[in-house]
Design a protein that fits this description.
This protein is an alpha/beta fold. It has helices at residues 20-31, 45-55, 71-85, 101-109, 122-133, 144-159, 171-177, 182-192, 197-204, 208-222, 227-237, and strands at 11-16, 36-42, 59-63, 91-96, 114-117, 138-139. It has a 6-stranded parallel sheet with strand order 2-1-3-4-5-6, with helices on both faces.
């Protein structure tokens, strides 16, 4: 819980889900916090895009399966518009279930800053909103390793590819990874193991500002738009092997 005296700004959140009860429940959880406020609710991706223009939220909680326009298409349009305008908001936090695992990588590649299970504990939901707002990316700490590994493996099976050897990065990423400095490669590894900017700063004995610069360089050199995309690349390229990554939730 954030004390009222510690609140320096309101984090404005838009909730997009086709089930009204879920929208209302999420809004109640968020509005209970002194630094969070729900500025709008949308029942589908198309409505979410309209409301983003109107309310300019900092974070969007985005369901995947919705009518009219699903969360994947909406996320891609949101992040593309942000990139074209040179802005880094709103951050998109995807709400998912294990039944949606085939969609998770698509959501990440569309630019989502992270994803959470819909039955996530309220405290973790609140921490997640704060985390993506400050530039960290994350996935549900209870399911990250299993879900990411299953998604990557599922994609490889569908694509007919054999998993890359543990010691050799996927050829698709070898060139881009070669552009990283030793420190940037170290940053990538620790990001994939779940460390936030704050964790990285403490571990490497540098400031958070320095960490953010390194993270930005990693994303730029790899042509990515979010930290969570970098985590997926680390898995796919063999930089971090399945079973090695440990998520460290930064509340």
């Amino acid at each position: 819980m954030v004390a009222a005296a510690e609140v320096s700004e309101q984090i404005r959140v838009l909730v997009a889900d086709d089930q009204g009860v879920i929208r209302m429940g999420l809004a109640m959880i968020l509005d209970h916090e002194p630094d969070l406020t729900t500025v709008a609710q949308a029942g589908d991706g198309e409505e979410a895009l309209r409301l983003i223009e109107q309310y300019d939220p900092d974070v969007v909680l985005m369901d995947i399966r919705m009518p009219v326009m699903d969360g994947l298409v909406a996320t891609e349009r949101i992040t593309r518009a942000s990139k074209e305008s040179g802005r880094n908001r709103p951050a998109v936090l995807v709400l998912t279930t294990f039944d949606d695992e085939a969609y998770v990588l698509s959501a990440v590649r569309a630019g989502a800053s992270g994803f959470l299970l819909k039955d996530t504990d309220p405290d973790l939901l609140v921490s997640a909103v704060r985390a993506v707002h400050r530039g960290d990316s994350l996935v549900d700490p209870a399911s990250t390793r299993v879900l990411l590994e299953r998604c990557v493996e599922l994609e490889r099976r569908v694509g007919g590819d054999e998993p890359a050897p543990a010691a050799a990065p996927d050829a698709r990423w070898a060139g881009a990874l070669g552009q990283l400095s030793d420190r940037e490669r170290e940053i990538l590894v620790w990001m994939a193991r779940g460390l936030s900017n704050r964790d990285l700063a403490a571990k490497l004995f540098v400031s958070e500002t320095t960490v953010k610069t390194h993270v930005s360089n990693v994303l730029s050199k790899l042509g990515l738009s979010s930290r969570v995309q970098a985590v997926v690349v680390a898995y796919e390229a063999g930089v971090v092997r399945p079973g090695e990554a440990e998520v460290n939730w930064d509340a």
